[in-house]
Write a structure and sequence with these properties.
Helix 1 (21-27) packs across helix 2 (29-50). A three-stranded antiparallel beta sheet has the order 1-3-2, with no helix packed on it. The radius of gyration is 17 Å and the shape is elongated. It is built from two helices and three strands. The chain has helices at residues 21-27, 29-50; strands at residues 15-17, 57-59, 62-64. The protein has one domain (15-64).
């Protein structure tokens, strides 16, 4: 019988969502979307990368990492 090697590693799952997104979009759709995109690019994506993570899915105002 062949012995299979199992590699274990610590993992974390992050689900994030913008609070009040619908309200923000109603009051300023273009500005809200621009700020969301800037925060993803400047803050969220670099932090996920620093921890060797990956963004699995964007869901409008949310993300699954």
């Amino acid at each position: 019988m062949a012995v299979q090697s199992i590699q274990r590693r610590l993992a974390a799952v992050l689900a994030a969502d913008v609070a009040g997104f619908a309200r923000l979009m109603e009051s300023d759709e273009r500005g809200t979307f621009g700020r969301l995109r800037a925060h993803r690019t400047e803050v969220f994506e670099p932090l996920v990368g620093e921890h060797r993570g990956r963004i699995v899915k964007h869901t409008g105002d949310g993300a699954l990492c």
